[in-house]
Amino acid sequence: MSLSPNLRILVLANQKGGVGKTTTAINLGTALAAIGERVLVIDLDPQGNASTGLGVERRNRRISTYEVLMGDEPLKAAIQDTSVPRLSLAPSTLDLLGIELEIAAHADRAYRLKKAIQSLADEREALPEAFHFTYVLVDCPPSLNLLTINALAACDSVLVPLQCEFFALEGLSQLLSTVDQVKRTLNPSLSIHGIVLTMYDARNNLAAQVVADVRSFMGDKVYETVIPRNVRISEAPSHGKPVLLYDLKCSGSQAYLKLASEVIQRERHLTAA
């Protein structure tokens, strides 16, 4: 059950690095905002790449997700506007590297993020419209640590970016097993929203084989939309912009707009079920 009927929380998770997880968080968030949703990206990765990719420099991250998880600040205090209309960010800092040790002894260590989002949802009516989010996207670190567990305990569904390369399926079973474990112990309503295939190169026969293998293994859990390997997607973060702002017409931007439509269609089916 979602923390609020008006809010859907999706976590982007994959313990393997370099699969396009942060890129997908930034650009799916931008695409959802572009089609009228109000989106909050929560950066839970100590590297802070989602924050950088949305143009929030380190010196401007005075309150971050570290203070929120420590319980020192409410989530609303960490939220910043971005250059994308209707898209906000709760940034991260390197302080998150030490969070596991600092909260490990606390009984609620796996529920810190859930409590923070719940408080924000509870205050919705008293807050300005800029805080009336319809989607929260949580960008996780590339590991199955306590930060990722917090995200999985707080969310409705998991969106898994999967690179179209040889070892793609190798880590997927480990992630699925973690999701099952969290569902049994911390979050009974947790589900896999879908798997998005990223960095697809049509000239590479192996990429087509990976797509076929993943679709045969995971069936309709795999989104129809495939994100291509696209130089404009790679360039955009260095300009502090999502690719949709950097070059709307490129194949990468168009793919993320299609993915956003597909996510919303799945949401309608899930909430109607």
What are the SSEs and their pairings?
Blueprint: E1 8-12, H1 21-34, E2 39-43, H2 49-53, H3 65-70, H4 75-78, E3 80-81, E4 87-90, H5 99-103, H6 112-122, E5 135-139, H7 146-154, E6 157-163, H8 168-185, E7 191-200, H9 205-218, E8 222-228, H10 231-235, H11 243-246, H12 251-272
Parallel strand pairs: 1-5, 1-6, 2-4, 2-5, 6-7, 7-8
Antiparallel strand pairs: 3-4
Helix pairs in contact: 1-12, 6-7
Note the main attributes of this structure.
eight-stranded mixed beta sheet; globular; single chain; Rossmann fold; alpha/beta; 16% strand; 273 residues
Query: Strands of the biggest beta sheet: in what spatial order?
Result: 3-4-2-5-1-6-7-8
- CATH-defined superfamily: P-loop containing nucleotide triphosphate hydrolases
Total of helices:
12
Q: Which geometry do the CA atoms define?
A: globular
Pairing-aware structural class of the strands and helices? alpha/beta
Estimate the helix proportion, in percent.
40-55%
| Element order: H for helix, E for strand | EHEHHHEEHHEHEHEHEHHH
Overall strand count = 8
Question: What is the total number of structural domains?
Answer: 1
Oligomer: single chain
Specify the CATH architecture. Answer: 3-Layer(aba) Sandwich
The Cα radius of gyration reads 17 Å
Our measurement of the CA-to-CA distance between the termini, rounded to an integer number of angstroms, reads: 12 Å
Indicate the mean pLDDT: 92
